[in-house]
Amino acid sequence: MASCYVLPMQLRYLEYFVALARERHFARAAESCHVAQPTLSAGLAALEDRLGQRLVIRDRRFIDLSPEGYAVLPFAQQMLADQQAMRSALNSDAGPLRGTLRLGAIPAAMPSVGYLVKAIAAAHPGLQVNIRSMTSREIEQGLVARDLDAGITYLSSEPPAQVRSAALYSEHFIFATHKDGPHADQASITLAQAAATRLCLLNDAMQNRRILNGCLAKHGLSVEPVATADSYVALLAMVANGCLSAIITDSHSAMVSAHPDLRLLPISDDIPANQVGLVIIDREPLSPLARAAFAIAGKIAFPSPLMST
To answer: What is the pLDDT of residues 100-121, one digit of tens each?
Structure first.
């Protein structure tokens, strides 16, 4: 049966199935595959007919994968990953590395992406990079499912399993407030003072927030933020508007310190640094794209805090 999957059209059907399992929405899955929704639905029906099993439970919309769908999913993911790895290996042997490096990055690490992409472009001019903002858990799941080639995430807290890691830089928490906001005239701020202000923070799904909650708990503190978000852009927009303050990371300092309405204050308490690194799946054979990203990550000298150069 396995030999039937080598046909390009049937591989395309597997791509539709894996995309639907990831997006859990027909329209979004079709968009990610760059096809019309009827095309995706027809491909899934053809795959189900080929396998003789119902893979997707649907009633005008996606409901869930069937038990058979969940059983097939890891094999489909592995087959697509093997195909991509084979193509990358052939391309790497034939000349310069080409293809698309799929990189997941936690929101707190987004300022580091520019350094990594610059180094990748210099080493492999023919390589494209697709960057997705994801939680640390989504990155781990994406690596295992072979939906990602590499990820940038925390190494010092809740480290992902089944990965190889290369440390990139360390970060510290800092306080961001409006120029006319609380404590804006101070040179630094205590964690207790920061926790007592009206805050906007990342939501609890974000590992950075869970790390912050742990730091607060160690100091006998807790917070009830007025607003939460899944991106630093949203937090800093709320701070710049003058209504709230935020606890962010110093890796963002170079990107926001020039904003005329923002003030960034170091936190005076002794809080351990958070280590951020690049991770790839620890499973042979490694794809040439993952191997290249890992090799480059081990050579980049990141300033701490991240600053423009």
So the answer is: 899 999 988 999 999 999 999 9
3-state secondary structure of 196: coil
Residue 189 DSSP one-character state: B
Q: Looking up tokens 């210099």, which residue turns up?
A: 122
d(CA 200, CA 236): 9
Residue pair 245/197 in contact (Cβ under 8 Å)? The answer is: yes
Are 281 and 162 in contact, with CB atoms under 8 Å apart?
A: yes
pLDDT tens digit sequence for 198-213: 999 999 989 999 999 9
Question: Coil, helix or strand for 149?
Answer: coil
CA distance 296 to 308: 19
- Evaluate the omega torsion of the peptide bond into residue 285 and state whether it is cis, within 30 degrees of 0: yes
Helix (H) or strand (E) holding 13: helix 8-23
Task: Give burial (CB, 10 Å; 0-12/13-18/19+) of 301.
Answer: exposed
Question: What is the C-alpha separation between 201 and 206, in angstroms, rounded?
Answer: 10
CA dist 58 and 17 (Å) reads 13
